[in-house]
What does this fold into?
Amino acid sequence: MTDASPDIPRTSVARQSNAQLSPLPADFRAFHQLYRPAYVRWAELYLGTRADAEEAVDRTFEQLAADWREVLSRDSPAGYAWTILKHRTIDAARARGRRPVVMDTAAFETRALHTAVDPIGELEESLSIYQAIRELPERQHDVIVLLYCIGYTTAETADILGISVPGVRSTARYARHRLKEALGLDQETGGATPFVPQARQPEATDVTEVKRKGGDDGDTR
It folds into this structure.
């Protein structure tokens, strides 16, 4: 997330007036430089082209610049910005007549993802992983894509999403468990077994432990 960023977009408010655009705050410029590369990588997965991704990300930063004081007042400015990015990406996909889903199934064919889901390596159908990840709850989906498809570290993923490192670990754990169930993998050995639905077990203990250690206050399911 340290790539040099291109020109910072002017806000839509400024474009609608003839007034000189005042210099953007230093903290906004730093935020833009820090997060823009990650945002572009995410948007490109969903929009299919770099140009479309950069346009969606620029619209994101235009909105953030216009409301920067409000953004800073949020408990998690990074988390709020991530939500705006996802909305702008969805808008861009719909404007092009496409569903806002990952365009390239090759993103789900990484060794890291296969290892995380199937430690023994018996899983061969990448499309089944693709479908299972699409059906994950939103936060779990975001964590899995950032960690295993794009390749960010746990700390980087936490920073991008505006949540804690324990929160990312907890969410990833629940997501992997859910994926293994969806793919019919044996939780003990990783081997493929017919999937038999089971009653959902309480998960309060793990979540309570994460919160006690300063974990994510967001959704981990």
